Protein 1
Amino acid sequence: MRQESVALTSIRGFAALWVVAMHFQLGMADVGYSLWPGLAHYGYAGVDIFFILSGFILTAVYRGIEWRGVGAFLIRRVFRVYPMHLAVLAGMLVVWIDAYLRFGVHNEAQQLRWLPVCALLLQPFVYHRLMWNAVSWSISMELVCYLLFPIVIMRVRHAALPILIAIILVCAGIERHLQTYDLYVWGDGAIARGVVGFALGMALRLASERCPVPSAALASLLEIAGVAGVVLSASIGDGTFIPLFAAVLILGLSYERGIVAWGLNARWCLWLGRISFSVYLLHEEVIGLVWPHFPASRLPFGHHLNGIVWTLMVLVIVLAMGTVTWFCIEEPFRRLGSLVARRVERYEPTQAPNEARRPEAATAAPLRAGAAAG
């Protein structure tokens, strides 16, 4: 039974909250409220952190994957992503039908003809506009990375450390270029953001396996440097380095020996990380539903304080709904996906003694598989 890397699971929760903060800020600014504009502005980098983290963790868990295990791997990935995505779309469709029948409301961002495309997570490839659940574009990019992962990992997992370092440097350079010039959520720019971030996480994980395990002091130094770099970059208004500092933080946390990892082992941090996917997919729709019925202006605390109180109220709703959907949708379907994958593996040819071990047992490095790996 694989154990969970609590620190890396927890950091997903904070990345998701950063994205949520950005969307709160964007929405509230349109109606005259200003909430933490500096830090929240760079919440989009939380998505790039997801890509790096996914590549890092999947490499740790499935480093030894062989062709006969690709089917089971993809089954687990599909069951990890699609059920929650389709549940959110179903809820949005119900709301759309209700608004249309009662009020004749027609939302240009929710055209029915694009619903099948969005359900299949193909929207970034066929339409240069955010439709239905806008944040799901990044899930489309994750699926691209999942499809490429088995091919790539089987080619690079035995690469020498200098080659891996070169890959890291190239990916880091491209990542910074993307953060500067090509922050797109559709087309080639979106694909590049997903693939480059994922590849950076993969190469970083493989390179770390070829290096000695650092002391607790060095692991803490990596963690603190990563956190400080992210915060400083956002504070001075230069978000181009945020994903790179986040990669340093992820590397430090993977050893689970530093002070930041110790803090992220708190139960509430783990809970936040586990529900992060649900929170990420749900939050924009919750904000859009609550505001028309109960805007911040109806609160009695004064303009600025009204915005803060309203934001906290909606955040509590988002976290509560994320918890419910994690228990009722994410976790049951994740387990079902694992069950189906194990049954598929039973019918695969038995491995020869000299072949690589099964992917579940392929990692001997300090990291233990987390919830992000499903």
Note: The two ends are 13 Å apart (CA to CA).
Protein 2
Amino acid sequence: MNNSGDRLRALLQECALTPSDFAVQRNVSPQHINNWFTRGIPLARLDEIADLFCVYPRWLKSGEGPKHPDPILRPRPTSRTPPSEAPPLLKDDGRQRRFQLQRFDNGAFTPVAAHHLSLPQRALDALGIKHQDVLCLAMPAHNMAPVIPCNAVLAIDRGFTRVEQGETYAVLHQGRLRIHHLSLGDHGVLSLHSHDRLNYPTERFSAAQRRAQDLHILGWVFWYAHLREGRPG
């Protein structure tokens, strides 16, 4: 494949999406898409198209490097536990830590009366999480659905803010609580990825933009759960 247009054509075929349907989705004419096939995707729209198909912009532009970003599409390898031995986090010795659910409103956290979450102390110990660093919140938006639905209960470790590719974090951005997969690129560019990438494209912030927009990492999301409100149908 010689240019990004060839790779775009292949991606459309992988998704069983016709060029005309794609043109409607991107709000451009079919002729625009034909031009992209021939001349390549305009640089101004390269990141947008890469995010849409969950591929690396570098791969889409030049064909070099990996195709899919590890943080979103590939599960990280984990060590295998012998079948006869239960995973350590499932061995509960009965000790529980109780945490009150918090609401983030007007730039501050306030407790939600009569709403608590209990977590096994053994699990916290295994993850190296101090109980005073645990913050429990409700998922504030739909951008991580269906993996983390809106209003799912989250447990956040405020003691872990280092960016590990593909892990899920709570961030504060201009006084707003947000939950995203994070990745850190060249020159300190922080990318915020949503699971629903069609409706919530990836956002990128340089170090200067993060300072100017008061964007900082609150902590690592290490637990979440959601009880369905009703049966299907």
Note: Helices lie at 4-14, 19-25, 30-39, 46-53, 57-62, 70-73, 121-127, 207-212.
